[in-house]
Amino acid sequence: MIGTLAAGVAVAAGAAWGALALWFQPLMGARWRPLLPAAWLALAAAALIGLATGHAWPAWGFGGLLLMLLAWWRWGVRPSNDRDWIPEVARITQGSVQGDTLTLRNVRNFNWRSATDYDVRWETRTYDLSRLASVDLALSYWGRPAIAHALVSFGFTDGQQVVFSVEIRRKRHDKFSEIGGFFRQYELSVLASAEEDSLRVRTNIRGEDGYLYRVHMPDGAARKLLLSYVDTASQLARHPRFYNTLTANCITIIYQLADKIVPGLPLNYRLLLSGYLPEYLYRLGTLEGADSAAAYRRAGRYTERARATTDPAQYSRNIRRGVPGVPSADDDDAADPRAPGAPT
């Protein structure tokens, strides 16, 4: 009896997983897409009926087919960099370092007028790592308070900002599916971009709600984190990976990179519920300048400031106005004699 029950549970689990795998990795055209998942469920139903009536052979047959499906999943479904990508993830960021000079190729700097109307601009930019001055976490919300997209922006004393974002690399006509993210529907991309592209498109074009947090890190950690992003992005250009909703998303990648620099970061449910990441960072003591995480949220919300900024040259400065832990623009210029416009 116990053996039959266990076999039934195994068949049911294999039925659910296999149907979803065949749906999100279809072996037939769109018109015939439902046929294989439906056939798979029918085979599983026959196996369950067989177990219930004392006939084990349908379950053994289904088990053999499940092993074949797992083998196909392991060796037949492979990530690739050669697909018909949507334009905003069509290229892969790559970088190289010589001394203190970081060169990034394929930095996205689109000029967005609407979600479908934009100028495509991929640039090569250089950064002086000796002038790396700040790390900011941007969270962008589109509906549910527990879920946000995380972007990390690195600031330099010459006024440059470069944003790194872990992105779903979608193909043309793909639609986002959290369940599909468990079933290898998308590749993974670590993309470098300008703030007036990746932050502005979310608040001003997609209507998302943006928050900015100044993250204080140990000496040398910001440089190591930036170079970890560069290395991860460059590796993906050579060895593509699949995105995974749970294990390879925008928050888990940030944690994995940061844990290499500051080992032993505590695990917490907020690393999965990314919308609550500020509370995690506040408890770690990496957010300064506000009496509570709630106060930091209120002051760090930059949505209206972003939408009110029409001059791209002022975008980065304006979204930081009033953010706890961020010096005022006048203080920054006075403190750094190399900054543009600073007194000499």
UniProtKB/TrEMBL annotation:
Membrane-traversing stretches: 6-23, 35-53
UniProt KW keywords: Membrane, Transmembrane, Transmembrane helix
Chain residue ranges for the region called Disordered: 305-344
Protein name: Lnb N-terminal periplasmic domain-containing protein
Parts forming coiled coils: none
Source organism per UniProt: Achromobacter deleyi
Annotated ranges, domain Lnb N-terminal periplasmic: 119-274
